[in-house]
Design a protein that fits this description.
Length: about 150
């Protein structure tokens, strides 16, 4: 069976973890870029301290990028080889701060090969689904605990 696979762009703007990794990488990269562009190590601060901060920032940005690429590859692999099953959206909890919706925690359940599973996923938007409704879920046949809501990514 050939499944549709979400684009990396769609994954970044659907999966909360991928979005955070992207934002952190961009922000940390901007700090490092600012230092390189304006040579901030020539300030009154100790240059060794700046080098340590920049090295740490570069390591953090690199780690975020590695995690982002691994997560995107994981999600795409599940969509490529996964099995489509029908599941139920148990609950949606919108996390808000100062009136702004930050993310949603979606809890869903499904049955695959006679076993019941229940998962929670943090997503940026839960517009395409509603609590108590049936949804399409893509399940990794090798690891049935690994599942994603199809309607959010496609």
């Amino acid at each position: 069976m050939i499944n549709k696979t979400p684009s990396p762009f769609k994954i970044i703007f659907a999966d909360y973890f991928c979005f955070l990794c992207t934002i952190f990488s961009i922000l940390i990269g901007a700090v490092v870029g600012y230092e390189k562009l304006f040579d901030a190590t020539q300030t009154e601060a100790n240059p060794e301290t700046w080098y340590f901060i920049l090295l740490s920032a570069g390591g953090a940005a690199g780690t975020c990028m590695v995690l982002l690429v691994c997560r995107i590859r994981l999600i795409r692999a599940v969509f490529e080889r996964g099995a489509n099953v029908r599941g139920k959206c148990e609950s949606i909890k919108n996390n808000k701060r100062r009136g702004l919706s930050l993310n949603s925690r979606v809890t869903f359940s499904y049955v695959y090969q006679g076993r019941s599973y229940k998962k929670r996923r943090y997503v940026l938007s839960s517009e395409n689904i509603s609590s108590g409704k049936y949804v399409q879920i893509v399940v990794d046949p090798n690891k049935p605990k690994q599942a994603f809501l199809r309607d959010i990514f496609l």
